[in-house]
Records
---
Amino acid sequence: MSDEFFIKYIKENFVYHPNGKLTRTDRKNSNGSYDKDGYLIIKIKGKQFKAHRIVYAMHYGYFPDGELDHINRVRDDNRIENLRLATRKENTLNTNRKPNEQTGVVGVYIDKTKGLKKKYATKLGGKSHRFYSLDEALEMRKRYYKDSKEFLKHG
């Protein structure tokens, strides 16, 4: 079944409430269940959808290709004003991460690789980068994330 089929079905069989909740009109007591990550999952014609993607499709008429970010980081707050399109990088920035215990900085750790003079490391874009000082590592992270400031909730 195509996306068009599911969008038509959703528009005909779901009611969106201003608090972000969805109500099904095609059956009783079938408003979904939560997955292990805290997202509400709703089954439609044997296919599973995350509720926030259903809400987005109801409002905009299509399922986004990329990811949707919950602005306030509450995974079951599916109000349309709390949802925004995001790249994977942007979506991972909008998380609660604790600072590294040794460096006091999110995403920068002390590199314990033998034989290296560089002391600090950070992972950016799936690659590790090593630095002689904490300031260098922080500057690299700042440059890497400069275009994603609205999503950055840590480091």
Note: The first strand starts at residue 14 and ends at 16.
---
Amino acid sequence: MRFAVPLLALALAACSSEVSEEERAAAVAEVEAAQVPQELELGAIRYREIEQHDLYGAGCSFAPDGGGLSAVALAMAEEGHFLLDGELITLAADKGSAELPYLARREYDGLAYSMTLDLDETAGEQSGEETSDYPATLTIRDAREQVVYEKPGIAQCGA
């Protein structure tokens, strides 16, 4: 069904002697709009990435349910981070979004992706001397605002 509209546009274009630039642009826009977003598989942010990219400081780390204890995203005062295909993706903190514990922000923006960390602050439990764990959901959207990652898990916030 997704491909029926672009195929119809191509068939109509083949019948006419020339395809206008407007028709071509409309056909391309329809194909792009019909594309299903590619779901992301985030990599674990380990100590080597933290050390290599100097990712120390206050904030929240997110670990998805069923994914072990490794964080796949960091939400900090100035930036948010996640690991995609071995590359650290860095997003700017949206200073207009809600402030979470330990200076983290709810929303982070970049050119190709945006990230939202929703956590239940009322259900937080102290897990260490300077850390608390909160039920959370991490959502990442692509440049077209399509959800490409959304998982529940735990956000551990601390210094």
Note: Residues 21-34 form the longest helix (14 residues).
